[in-house]
Amino acid sequence: MNFLHFILQxxxxxxxxxxxxxxxxxxxxxxxxxxxxxxxxxxxxWPRWNKPVLAGxxxxxxxxxxxxxxxxxxxxxxxxRVDRLAILALTxxxxxxxxxxxxxxxRGVDPAVVEAGRGMGLTDRQLLFQVELPLAFxxxxxxxxxxxxxxxxxxxxxxxxxxxxxxEFIFRGLAMVNNQLILAGAVPAAILALSADFAVSWIERRxxxx
Length: 210
Known about the structure:
The chain has about 210 residues and is mainly alpha-helical. It has helices at about 1-10, 10-45, 50-60, 65-70, 75-80, 80-105, 110-120, 125-155, 165-175, 180-205. It is elongated.
């Protein structure tokens, strides 16, 4: 009850930090989609780029989030605006599942369907946009879902560099040894992650090829 009372008393600040959190996650996920899907298409089309691209994305995943924020802080244009830095870091972390699922989805399209498209006179571009991507869309969405959930969790760490978000409550609560503050950041973040997972899963089921 103390936790709920705290949320009600500070609902304005909770809402503000939640919107900051959604901004960080939304922009970084959009950028990751804009970068990750073309990279996934590229490695599906030209397998020689498979290992370098996936290895690079895997290496980024192994870097601790606080360390990555620290590496990016000295960069002039990024260091001036911590929200830019946080968005870039979250984008980098979200790339792997999107790239991998785009690649898997396109490579998983039945070769007979692709050959049938070629037999109908479709160009490579038409095959990609009219056959392969529509059939791979549910698999790509699955990667986006994983990326969103990862970003919601990691965005709480962005508060350590002053980028805002629900992590503000968590770090403040840790400093003050105040469980109410920690829960005020952790519970809404968990709800956001579960809601995003549910929403994208629902869309994924709706567009899955029968």
